[in-house]
TrEMBL record:
It is an enzyme of class 2 (transferase). Pathway: Purine metabolism; IMP biosynthesis via de novo pathway; N(1)-(5-phospho-D-ribosyl)glycinamide from 5-phospho-alpha-D-ribose 1-diphosphate: step 1/2. PROSITE patterns: GATASE_TYPE_2. It comes from Paenibacillus enshidis. It catalyses: 5-phospho-beta-D-ribosylamine + L-glutamate + diphosphate = 5-phospho-alpha-D-ribose 1-diphosphate + L-glutamine + H2O. Its EC number is 2.4.2.14. This is Amidophosphoribosyltransferase.
Amino acid sequence: MSDELSQPQLRQTFWTGDYYNEGSGKDGLFDKLKEECGVFGVYRHPDAASLSYYGLHALQHRGEESAGMCVSDGGEFHYHRGMGLVKEVFDKDIMASLVGDIAIGHVRYSTSGDSKLTNAQPLVFKYRDGDLAVATNGNIVNALQIRRELEQSGSIFQTTSDTEVVAHLIARSPKDLVEATKDAFNQIVGGFAFLVMTNDKLIAASDPHGLRPLTMGRLNGAYIFASETCALETIGAELIRDIEPGELLVLDKDGLREERFDHGKHRKALCAMEYIYFARPDSDLNGSNLHMARKRMGNQMAMECFIDADVVTGVPDSSISAAIGYAEQTGIPYELGMIKNKYTGRTFIQPSQELREQGVKMKLSAVRRVVEGKRVVMIDDSIVRGTTSRRIVNMLRDAGATEVHVCITSPPFKNPCFYGIDTPDRKELIASSKTIEEIRQEINADSLHFLSFEGLIEAVGGHNSSDPKGGLCLACFDNEYPTQVNFNGEEKFGCSC
């Protein structure tokens, strides 16, 4: 190998941040956080590929840059991956080639510099016992350290995805697949929901804190796994239950075995942003419907902060439920004060400088007849950098709103996520360096209010838990991480649970 392709220089091209999958947190013209992926699995259904297609379509909001599917007929794998939306990646001919009754699928949102086909999942490998496919939702905090150790002992990596680390750990183990998978999961730290498939087995597992959601359902005797229950609903499957933290389920010719890879006592810490923003409103988490939970966030916001106004509106689509809740609690009329253009999507035409400056108008339009001459309460789920909030406030003012009061149905977002959400560097998070009053001035609002920790926990039903955090990971708000994480080479220990 030449000096130009030496190992250290290769590593520099694998990732651009301080840890795997550190990204920019940007959504084109929108300043919104991004989930990294969604997974879907089928065990023993003759139409496994078709079910996976519709399941992935239901999970499209969790990743729009690549999609993939691997299907086993009991003897060999048939798989396809591609860049783009599910409907763009799979056509009739491709679907006809995906024959089998076991399948795992994946939709992915990549992070900094890693939007390329080699990283599309499921990742598929040949190893000593046959074929192996792996798909995950989440992020492995210590992937870089493990990868370096594996490379030093001879492993050759084909992707920049941290998911490949797990495949190498499984393949190098002398134990059988199930025990090797348990050992691999015990070596990694982070938030993850994994689906692992061989020619005749399917394994599903959740990290010891349950940071990323994973559910199990049944359909005509087949087992179905999905990141969200909305995917089960789409194919007509019955929800059985959520996969528990640290649990590992094995499905093979002997049926379903419920096992564990982690036997420690860890605090359950489901990502709060799933409730606040990411999950679809028709999904359920921990038995709680997301639409209703978000309505309760709006109710709580109203009880914590009543504003004398003429109309309530929510930033579409994630904040509409909370806006309805706020309106119901206060008696102030709810109106569609903003309309989202659903067809901007991924564009290959760069907007003009004028539109770039106005940015948000490409995706959102104010309904002038609704807001003109009115005192408006604008409900949104979070503020990241503040740029989008400022643009929306100014858009409402341009449409004639006399006052714009901003209510955020989450606490101030101050800290980066290490568990599968693409967040910017801490210094780019406006709440990490500015007071609420300074943020209010920055976004040009008449008033600015954030939901309290207690209000958020109450809204999602966490008040019934003995855990003061309500079974949630709130690290992006309170800087208390449920696992050990790494900040620029300095070890940080979270809440020590």
